[in-house]
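Quick one, tokens below. Sequence please?
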């Protein structure tokens, strides 16, 4: 692991880290802190993890774009080789104890859910922290400390809400992860029938459970994820035409219409804005 940028505050250490994995294999990770990891480039193929002290040794579950390794837990990670960049937020253990009065109990449901944390609020905070680590500005440490505290609060809410979701009929963590994995694929969006079969549910159970878990309709979530994938591909330099057809749009014009309706700008305008923002950042 190579740390390209770092900022430390009382509650956490934030790092922009690059992982160069020469040989696919397995590693053991043990932390006495909450290790929060947001991938800003794609993870190696088939990246999966196992909690050695809780699961059978052959059970490896997929890692999402953002995962968190609990403190004092041994996590075995395996997947294909390659390079990958992440924003890490290493939260102090007492950040969780401060509000709960105790450590979180790592139930089966919480362990499953920690491998793919879906919170958009936390993702946006991590992206801001990554930028702050690279380009610290006015009152950078105070600003970063405030965001780290907010992340800890959001994570507490996320894990405590899992029990509520279970009682309210929300989807199990493994089903949500399977849906997230399918939505990250760059191809035509899935139908409700496909997702229901993937999860082993009826369409009605799927739509009701998803709304209970994510507080939005699964159709809106699919549409939003599709646009997020398009943004990522535009940032990687893919052509508008190739993105349109690879993501299942009938034509480039159809893709441009959907993108503009969702974002307020055309794909080319969005790419120009990305380029302009990158070129004006201090080095």
């Amino acid at each position: 692991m190579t740390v390209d940028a770092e900022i430390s505050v009382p509650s956490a250490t934030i790092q922009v880290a690059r992982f160069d994995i020469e040989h696919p294999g397995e590693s053991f990770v043990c932390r006495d802190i909450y290790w929060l990891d947001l991938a800003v480039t794609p993870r190696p193929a088939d990246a999966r993890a196992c909690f050695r002290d809780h699961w059978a040794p052959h059970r490896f579950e997929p890692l999402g774009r953002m995962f968190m390794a609990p403190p004092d837990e041994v996590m075995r990670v395996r997947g294909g080789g390659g390079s990958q960049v992440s924003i890490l937020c290493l939260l102090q253990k007492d950040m969780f104890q401060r509000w709960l009065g105790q450590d979180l109990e790592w139930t089966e449901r919480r362990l499953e859910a920690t491998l793919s944390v879906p919170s958009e609020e936390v993702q946006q905070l991590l992206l801001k922290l990554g930028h702050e680590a690279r380009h610290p500005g006015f009152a950078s440490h105070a600003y970063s400390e405030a965001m780290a505290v907010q992340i800890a609060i959001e994570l507490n809410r996320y894990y405590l809400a899992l029990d509520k979701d279970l009682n309210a009929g929300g989807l199990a963590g493994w089903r949500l992860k399977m849906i997230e994995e399918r939505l990250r694929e760059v191809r035509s969006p899935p139908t409700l029938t496909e997702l229901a079969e993937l999860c082993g549910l009826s369409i009605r159970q799927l739509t009701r459970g998803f709304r209970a878990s994510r507080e939005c309709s699964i159709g809106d979530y699919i549409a939003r994820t599709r646009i997020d994938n398009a943004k990522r591909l535009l940032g990687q330099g893919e052509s508008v035409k190739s993105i349109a057809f690879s993501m299942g749009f009938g034509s480039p014009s159809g893709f441009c219409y959907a993108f503009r309706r969702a974002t307020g700008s055309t794909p080319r305008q969005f790419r120009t804005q990305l380029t302009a923002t990158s070129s004006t950042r201090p080095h």
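The two ends are 22 Å apart (CA to CA). Residues 140-167 form the longest helix (28 residues).
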